[in-house]
Amino acid sequence: MTHADTDASLNAMIPAWVDGALAPVEKLAVHHRGLRHKAVSVFVMSGDHLLLQRRALGKYHTPGLWANTCCTHPHWQEDAVTCATRRLDEELGLRGLTLEHRDQLEYRADVGGGMVEHELVDIFVAEMDRAHPMRANPSEVMDTSWMTLDEIHAQIGARAETFTPWFKIYMAQHASQIFGATLGRGVA
Q1: In sequence order, which ranges of 40-148 are alpha helices (DSSP H)?
Q2: 70-72 and 141-148 beta bridge pairing
Q3: CA 90/CA 172 separation, integer angstroms
Q4: Coil vs helix vs strand at 164
Q5: pLDDT of residue 11
Q6: Three-state SS for 173?
Q7: Which of the residues are catalytic?
Q8: Which residues, in sequence order, are CB contacts of 119 under 8 Å at separation 6+?
Q9: What's the pLDDT tens digit per position in 127-177?
Q10: Which of 43, 73, 89, 161 has an alpha carbon 20 to 30 Å from 125's alpha carbon atom?
């Protein structure tokens, strides 16, 4: 993704609720106004390990923080699975994964800089062999790591400030919905 592409994505029109109706609204305006909006989050697993990404330092909010594999906003009139598939490729060069829709969740979190994420999120989970080709886009992702949910829970307990607000919400409030009763049980 070039600098021009990144600038264009900041001005993207995403689906948000304005006065009770879904409408296309410019992405930065959505976050500055704290509007409820559509989003997708993807969690790629390899056995009991989750692929995490550390957000690039150039991101417009929460730069340098660890998050789930991929999260984004659909373009206006883009369906959730198409969006999730597109962003896995754009952020991590991941193609050919089978995405399983797990749930739809809602959260609200201050992400700094006067911005709020108030998202209605479609959650997708995929299984991947770690040998599957992956190439992180440096304008989106500065690092990746595979961790078990127990390791993630311990890291959040020890260094909460290194994780995005939404990822901490997912792990604290929605782990069993995302990962299933067995894997999500150990995360509080």
Answers
A1: 80-92
A2: unpaired
A3: 28
A4: coil
A5: 60
A6: helix
A7: 71, 119
A8: 36, 37, 38, 39, 106, 107, 108, 166
A9: 999 999 999 999 999 999 999 999 999 999 999 999 999 999 999 999 999
A10: 161
